[in-house]
Structures are given as structure tokens and as C-alpha cells.
């Protein structure tokens, strides 16, 4: 607030009722030179009394008086005056030049000594105001709790806390309205070296290197080694090619179509103005779309950790054929689930996947597949473990066999799945050797949603369960997990249209605008509420509210036959994918 | 430091009576002859850093009588008297701010009874003074003599609430201070 001022007079405080604001000012008076020196020395703030208190006669006592009076500033004081009245207020100033008249702010007469006042004092309360009490009236100034020994040492920048706890209501009170004329900041004289933070040269490079400067000024050497944090780049003769290759892939990825609104926005694709998409949906970091949340329930988390290795083994064989993998995964999961009795979740998955396939022309499915395809194609040279199956894949209807045959041949993505229709090639170990938990395998990462790492597990798991064919027999080749382009599982049971399959009608009530389930809720409990969800949904198929409306099709009947899992009420596990 | 021989010597503890009838006792911190101002602090001995004492600045001509209780050392440390102007001004600002807040709670030209009703209301409701009317939640107005029937304005719910509170507070005040009308 105030820098050390030698003359102890606060700036810009104006005058009070014409009474010049003279708080212990010395220089201005010019009359008592000895006092000036005195004031200087005694008003050195905390920087120590550099003293040479040069005193004139009798100024010692005056010093002390002035010291005490200055310490009183800001305190509540009671001033007794000649006629017996007592005025209470905040000590603001005293006329130290002359006879020490006193100026109080927010003062009120709390005891009126005048004969007239006696009558009314009890009844009338007046507004506090600034009062000047001339020295001739003054009898006594009484202040409580003054720290004459000096205040406690400040504890650094925050030391004002005891007095200056500004609560909002205090600040926002409309008082003291001093509107300031705002001036543009101009650097002080001494600051010739105004290093602008944003100084760029022609090429757009900053002409100032902070690391250089730091090293020069302080001898601080940067020990940053990029390779600690990222993959070491092989800068060799092939650098150029690799770069080109990488940027091509990047371009492909970035340019591709997407249904995801976030990605679309990022890429500048216009998805169509869905009025439901308010800001929250558009920009929130919370994923509320139904895509991935479904899959959470499918995960058989406990087992997921186990067979990763084995699974990956198979998969890695041909990373390029990610597409195949995905579909395989689905199959595998389905088949796997059959084997695995303990995985109720998987059962669910199975169930879930079924409905979709009842209707080969089910659009969502193909769409899903489509996305799946695209995603898979992306994961070229890596052993992706972050797989994200699109929700559509969920829509496997009961009784569907090789899902793959259906939609996988659908709209091609950037990388054509070389679908060998029926044949998953090589690395597949066509049988249940793949004990890998479906949830585990993720050779393909769908890099669609880059930020999805947290939910990747669930997605993976979901993906697994979904991926493809619900109706796979246990012996369906899990091996198809490999990166075959073909999305067909040769061992999968053929899809047969199930005329009894109920066609799914999206129902408004089923729309899941709910907050997504927590990531932790992978494991889908066995006790599903039986309340029917809406038209078209069989009893028993419900969306567990606890999961924020994940359209998880949980079938609470674990004992159903593996073949074309049909819910007794009809293969209604529709993915409520709205 | 000061001229010796004077009765008002620094460090002397005196007990005095003023012409206004006040009595006190304390140690002389300073005495300024030209202005005849005597500075006394209650308690004997030098105040530590941060230690607080009550301080009087008294015009010596109003001392009717006094007596020396004891003699002591200089209660001020000449080398240690430092004034932190920043802190002082900050303190003043804070005090003024707080005083403003407090002042707004006091009605001007209102009876003490009105003031106590205001105070009672302000415990649970946001209230302000508007001349001699109490304005609750910026919409409900209570006029003199601040009976439940003087409550007007605001939504029905707010109005009711204020009426009830006034009623209740009045009863409480009556119970406590039977004389209060």
C-alpha cells in the first residue's frame, strides 16, 4: 500500500471538512526542523531506526508523544472533551504542528455532557461521521489495547491477515466509492530491459531463449532429456521415410470421418446440428454418450488380468489386420463366455451381442462395424491394447453367428479389411485355447478417442464381449483374434436369421442421458432389477439405474444354452442405443 | 532522557484523578511540556513487542490530583520505537471498513426498541435501514412502530416470515425486558 514515506503523511487523503489533512506532517510545516529529523528517524517503518535522532530541545518528549499518537492511528478511541462528553471513533489524525487537535473518523458522541444533550442522548442515535476535536476542548484520549512496543513482527507478505481479512461482503459494500482513473501501465524509468514475453522475430521464433538466459544469469543448466519421456526417435537414413509414413497415417486419422461429436468438432467436421447437444454435451470432459459405457458391464474384470499374455501372443501376429481381430474378439468373447461359467458378465455380453444379429440389416450394427473397421485399421503397427469397440457392436442379437460376415464387409474404412470371409488366417488357434479373457485382448486400439485411456479397460472388455457373434459355439476359433483382415470367423456358426427376433424400436424413455456410470463399475452385479424398461423390452432387461443408464443387457439367467442365446421372452436384448 | 526534577518523569507510576471525575493509575510514557500532554499506559514496565496496553493521552491541566506510586524505567525503548506506517494505515482502513459495516446496522433517529428489533431480525435475516424503516431481504418493509401489522411488501411467504419473526422477537424482548414497550 504505502511505501515508506519519510514524512508520514498519507497521500491522497484529501482534507477533512476543510481541515487540512495533516497527520503528523512535518516537512510541510517547516517550522520545527528538529522535528523533521525526528520524524524521519522515527518513521523508518520496519527498516530499523536508523537513528541519529537529532533532537532539539524538548523534542525528545515530543518524539515520544508523536510516536504514541501515531501508534494510535486506526484504533478505536474515546475522546473526552471539556464539557464531559465522550466521543468515540477511529483515531485518524492529530495536528502535531500545533496543539494536537484530534481528528476522528466514524465518530459518535456516546456520552453527551452538555445539559441539552442529556435529555436526548438515550433516544437518538446519530450516524457516525468524521469529527474534529480542537485541542482546546480536548481533555483526554483513551485507547485500549495499543501495542506500544510495536506490533508483532510481520510474518511475511501475509502478515496483515489479522486485520485485513477482507471478506467479500466487506469488499462489496458500497462505501468509500473511490473510482479510480485507470491509467495504462508504463514501465518505470529504470526498466530499460523490458523483455516482452511475446517477442517474435520474422519467422515466428522467439528471439529470447529462456534456457539460455537462465544458464547465463544463474548458471542453471537444463537437464531435460526428451528421451526419458517419449520414444527415442531413430534418426537414421530412414528418418525421412518414417516421417512421411507417420504423417500419412496422421493425416488419415485426422481426416477420417467420425460420429463422435468431440472428434468431429476437433477436425472441423460438421455433424449436424443436434439440438440436444448443448454445451455440456459438446464440451464436457465427461463422456456421456452410450458408446463405451455399455461395455463396462460386460467386463469380467477379475479374469481380465490373467490371460493377457496368451491372447496377445496370438494377436500380434499380424498387426495390420486389426479388423479381423476385433471381430474375432467378439466371437471369442462370446465363445469364451460360454465356457466360463463364472462370468456372469460375460454372459451378459453374450446376450447383448445377440440381439443385433437377428436383424442382419440392422443398421446400427453395420455402423458399428464400420467404426470398428475404421478403428481397427488405424492400429497398424502397434500392439494396441486400447481397444474401443463402438457401441454399435453391442447390438448383437441373439442367435447371431459370425457377426463378422455381416457387417464387417461393410463400408470400408481407410484400410480395407481384407476380409477373407470365412477365414481367419494363421495365427488363430481355432479353439478354445485362447483362454484369454475377452476383455483382455486388445490388440487393436481404436484410437478414436484419444483420451479414453481411463475407460479403455472397460471398453476393451466391452468390445470383447460385443465384438461379434453372440452365438458362437465354444469351439469357435478364438484364434481369429489375429490381425487378419478378414473379419469372419471360420469356425463361427453361420448366421441364421431368426424370424422371431423382435425388432428393436428405440424408445424415448430409454434414452440414456444419465451421467455415465463410474469407471469402477465394471462388474455387473447379478441382481438386476426386473422392472421392464419400456416398450419392446422384455421383462428382465433393464438398465440398471445404478449404472447411469448404461444400456447393458444383463440377462440374469445364466443357464441358457449357448447356441443363439435366446432370451425366453425373445431375443430382446436390444442395445438401447439411441 | 527528559529533564529531571519534573514530577512527570518518564517511568513514574502515578495514580491520579481528573477534573471530570475519572480515576486511573498508570506509568508515564511521555510528557510533552509545550502541549502539556501526558501519555500514560496502564501496567508497569516496558511493553513487549505485540503486547497491548491501554493508553491515555491526557492534558495535564485536567489532573486534579495525583500521587506517585513508584518509579520505574523508561517504558519505551528509544531504539526500538519503530512505526510501520503500512501496517498502521492498513489497520486504519480495516477499522474504517468494519465501522462502516457496523454503522449500517444502526438506525439513525430510531428508538432503541426499534434498534433491538432490527438487531433481532438481523440475526437470521438480511436487514437494512431505510430511514426509520427496516427493510428485510430488500423487499419487505417494516415501519414504525414495528408491529407485525406494520409489515408490508415482498412475497407472501417473505411477508409472513417477517411477521412471524417480528412477533417472536417482540415477545422475547418483552420477556427479557418487561419495561420495553
From TrEMBL, chain A:
- Cellular component GO terms, alphabetical: cytoplasmic stress granule
Query: Bias regions of kind Polar residues — which residues?
Result: 297-315, 324-354
Region span, Disordered: 1-44, 297-520
Which spans does this entry mark as compositional bias, Basic and acidic residues?
22-35, 370-390
Domain (LsmAD): residue spans on this chain: 218-289
What Gene Ontology molecular-function terms does this entry list?
Answer: mRNA binding
Source domain of life is Eukaryota
Chain intervals with Low complexity compositional bias: 410-423, 445-460, 468-483
Which Gene Ontology BP terms does the record give? Answer: stress granule assembly
What InterPro entries does UniProt report for this protein, alphabetically? Answer: ATXN2-like, LsmAD_domain, PAM2_motif, SM_dom_ATX
- What is this protein identified as? LsmAD domain-containing protein
What organism does the record attribute this protein to?
Answer: Digitaria exilis
Automatic annotation (TrEMBL), chain B:
Q: Which PROSITE patterns match?
A: AD
Q: Which InterPro entries does the UniProt record give? A: AD, Lsm12-like, LSM12_ABD, LSM12_LSM
Q: Which domain of life is it from?
A: Eukaryota
Pfam families reported for this sequence: AD, LSM12_LSM
Any transmembrane segments, and where?
Answer: none
- AD domain ranges (all copies): 81-174
Q: What is this protein called?
A: AD domain-containing protein
